Hints:
Two copies of one chain form a homodimer. The longest helix of chain A is centred in the middle third of the chain and has 25 residues, at 69-93. The mean pLDDT of chain A is 96. Chain A is an alpha+beta fold. The radius of gyration of chain A is 19 Å and the shape is globular. Chain A has three domains: 2-67, Winged helix-like DNA-binding domain superfamily/Winged helix DNA-binding domain (Arc Repressor Mutant, subunit A), CATH 1.10.10; 80-144, Winged helix-like DNA-binding domain superfamily/Winged helix DNA-binding domain (Arc Repressor Mutant, subunit A, Orthogonal Bundle); 148-222, Ferrous iron transport protein A (FeoA) (SH3 type barrels). In chain A, a hairpin with a 4-residue loop joins strand 6 (197-202) and strand 7. Chain A is 41% helix and 17% strand. In chain A, helix 2 (28-35) packs across helix 3 (39-51). Chain A has a six-stranded antiparallel β-sheet with strand order 3-8-4-5-6-7. The first copy, chain A, has a two-stranded antiparallel sheet with strand order 1-2. The first copy, chain A, contains eight helices and eight strands, in the order H-H-H-E-E-H-H-H-E-E-H-E-E-E-H-E. Chain A binds chain B through residues 89, 92-95, 99, 102-103, 106-107, 109-112, 114-115, 118-119, 122, and chain B through 89, 92-95, 99, 102-103, 106-107, 109-112, 114-115, 118-119, 122. Residues 83, 86, 129, 131, 133 of chain B line the site of one manganese (II) ion. Chain A binds a DNA duplex through residues 6, 8-9, 27-29, 37-45, 47-48, 61-62.
Amino acid sequence: MKENLTQPIQDYLKHIYALSEAGTPATTTDLAARLGVAPASVTGMIQRLAGLQPPLVTYRKHQGALLTPAGKRAALEVIRHHRLLETYLVTMLGFSWDEVHEEACRLEHVISETFEERIASALGNPTHDPHGDPIPSAALEMPTDESTPLLGLRPPHSAVIMRVQATDPPFLRHLNNLGLIPGARVQALAFSPFDQNLQVRVNEGEAQIIGAAISAKIYVEEKG
Amino acid sequence: MKENLTQPIQDYLKHIYALSEAGTPATTTDLAARLGVAPASVTGMIQRLAGLQPPLVTYRKHQGALLTPAGKRAALEVIRHHRLLETYLVTMLGFSWDEVHEEACRLEHVISETFEERIASALGNPTHDPHGDPIPSAALEMPTDESTPLLGLRPPHSAVIMRVQATDPPFLRHLNNLGLIPGARVQALAFSPFDQNLQVRVNEGEAQIIGAAISAKIYVEEKG
DNA sequence: ACACTAATTTAGTCTAACCTAAATTATAAA
DNA sequence: TTTATAATTTAGGTTAGACTAAATTAGTGT
Lengths: 224, 224
Ligand SMILES: [Mn+2]
Ligand SMILES: [Mn+2]
Ligand SMILES: [Mn+2]
Ligand SMILES: [Mn+2]
């Protein structure tokens, strides 16, 4: 139960969580790509995490890694820090939503539980961050998320953007320019099955066409 | 001019700055004590810092270390982070002055220049932190400090507390209980040369006697 | 000038986290 | 079923930053 996890370990756990959330183990290669690290380094770290007392991941050779309860708890703690920090930076310090990921990714490993609690209550215990990502509660319960990719929306349905799965600052700035941010209402006007282009109207604005590389990263819920 | 300094290096520089501020080189032993590290580790690190391009310290065997201009700049940058963070935690997040040192000592190494600038302007570009320590400006100029130890105040002079040189939480809580905080007015009522006890009145309160272990850590300026 | 002590440095290890190159294993196609 | 390709693991090596124990140096008192 001791909390001596290093920054690299916390980042591994965070990414294993994201990759294995659907139930399928996180693979060496995917982790390596996300962490910006050589696959061999991932194998080494996974074996170490599986050998800790208590183990943070379960692992069988060539089968990828899954979090143990202890590993999941540690991952959710870091994710809570990250998302609360992003929210605080945007809400209280005037950062824009494309500036906060990097900053939060460094701060998340060093803030105390006291700091976590203070910013959470300064923000009114928010449940979602500026990108619409759910923030685990203080008890580490992850809010449920029913949203689905905008890519799947078909005319004439409309929906509300709940979440944007992106960290790349230029991409986030582009989405912002298009009005494709959480809370925006999007109506599907046309879908082209061959190139997967989707024509949409955002918040009563002009019709525009967006490719799958964009619409797959935007998550919506059909409402109204 | 690259900013790849690790957290341990930044902490070394910060402590070398504090120890050599008066002009005398920082000794291996003093650094080891402050950093909570073995003397041999300090020697190794100092030699490394002196060998960097550009060098961050000058060093002659057995003579201790002094900061180079580059080293001083890096140290002041960290100190500015630390003291702005302490101020922010107290002013904006409701921390008490004994809680902030540890937190700031971790955060100081990971905040961006943007973050630094945002909290500085949210605070109105303060020049002193909650303990009265001067905060280097954005241009890394250290505000001058003319204060002297309360230990040197003699009856019937009185003075204002400018600064408290302490990081130990219980000690800081004790000072707070006695009202010995920056801004408080202190009048010397009696001094006992043998035990160095000083009898003082704080802000029109009851007379009290404080030992040298306390009065040497409190810095004052005679005013009025 | 000399020797003792305290401070400092050297030498030799250790661990975490990364790397590259080579070897191995799994999976999918022929 | 065999084989090719891709994924993964192993082997061997590096760097930063710490440690202990041993050797050396500086400074002080005689
Ligand atoms: Mn991170
Ligand atoms: Mn986010
Ligand atoms: Mn620090
Ligand atoms: Mn301070």
